[in-house]
Amino acid sequence: MKSFRFCFLMLTIAILASPALSDLVLSKVDRRIYLTSHIVRISSTVKVENAGPEKESLVLLAFPEQQAKNMAYLMATPHEGKGKVKNPVVALPVEAANPKDMPAALTFYSVSLPKGLAEGDSFTFDVLAVFTHALRPIPEQITQADIQLVLYQDSAHYLSPYAVKVQSLSVKLPDSRIESYTKLENTKIHGSEIKYGPYENLPSFSYSPIAVHFESNLPFAVAQELVREIEISHWGNVQVTEHYKLIHGGAQSKGEFSRLDFLARPNVRGASAFRYLVANLPPRAHSVYYRDEIGNISTSHLRGDSKKVVLPEGSSDISVAASFPVEQWQETKISHLDIDGRPVVVLKKTNVVPQHNQFFQVYYHFSQLSMLREPLMLISGFFFFFVACIVYMHADISISKSSASYLAKQQWEEVQAVIQQVQNIISRCLTTHDNLEASLRDLSRTGNIQACKAARKAADGLLKELSKELKPLLTFLQSSPSAAQVLPKVEELVAKERELQEKVMVKHSTVVDGYEKKLGARDIENRVALQQQKLTALRQEVDDLLEFIDEI
């Protein structure tokens, strides 16, 4: 902490020694810092006035050098005000600037206004700045049971080369649990939000360092490298393949990791771990697959939108238009039915944040003659395919409905349908178990024993109904010769689920009994610890059996 304070002190001295830049005045600045994820967003609404006789068309934005190094995105737009109809956002031009006689500790950007400001005129605009690696985990290493604390440092005053009449700052945190924060004049805290100001009549380059040390158990998912390959075909398809190299950018883990503790109490043992990834796909996306280094990823849910772009073979005069600076070069890729290979446009961008999810355009020339290469190859293939179809159509290889193979196929389809019904009933039983576990969590939070008992009663009734539905299905499978191969696994699945059901009920009764006897939470947890381990192992066995039967 001492080194950070020293850096802030040196920065403050350098800034306060800087002169004012022009006759522009910031009459009002509202700044909002969002620390609700590991990507820091700072949104500022700035009202600028011209107090001098000369027209002004540029407004300078100042950032400390260290903060500017971590800046991933910067955009300025006209402010439309509250209650007005939102029009499509038209960004104001923003460029890096290098004004004279300014300290090296600051980095400047210029915002071009739609029209010059005459004396007495004003203009209000919004500035969005996005930063990565702005949150530092302190402590830098934590155990599986520890919470994650991070530190953020900034200035309570809006850093600007212009005088500021009125300014305010709000810092929005992910939770109300705050370890420490800098207390200045006019500092208020409301739940998970810290407010500084308003402060009036601040001189240019006014700077007041603040630090916020707070709890943030949000997952710090960072892609060290992302390669996206977009392959274009003039036959109507676009294939997109993405390769991620992921790390956790928050506090590092120390000590041993217990998967059993993590599965039993994920919100306590590993609260800051990220458990899943979300991909937004276009509505027409299809044939989606995902896998890691060791194989296919089965625990996923598909709901039905930095790049590499592969153009059709024969493309020429290639150019790219992107809304932000990127490195680019060209390569060649050999694919199916290719002769010379397909041109590949490679676009590279570092320090990428969600705000960079924008459209880009690739322009290229494509000769119609080049489209004849692959069709000629395909025509030959289709010719031989049609010949094979003609031979197939003239051959009598039909199967009679009275044949043994047809009857066996029909019986197997009936067995498959019954097994699907059994799987659905078991899944509903598992959902009921999860609801009972949820009632215990509500009991520990509210202490409402009657509500917990009511949930138990409803679960008992539902499980009895599901057991009745299951009996005729098992009877059918036991009487069908076609089910002989899969029947032992189905019976084992039913037995394991019933054993799991009994242990869930025992745990539920034990916890409710403990609350009725007004035992402490630690005592209740110790009473069910062994039961919870057996429940976790049984649930895994049931899930494995479901997956095995589904593959059959």
TrEMBL record:
It is a single-pass type I membrane protein. It is found in: Endoplasmic reticulum membrane. The chain crosses the membrane at residues 376-395. One of its GO terms (cellular component) is oligosaccharyltransferase complex. Residues 1-22 form the signal peptide. Keywords: Endoplasmic reticulum, Membrane, Signal, Transmembrane, Transmembrane helix. Component of the oligosaccharyltransferase (OST) complex. This is Dolichyl-diphosphooligosaccharide--protein glycosyltransferase subunit 1.
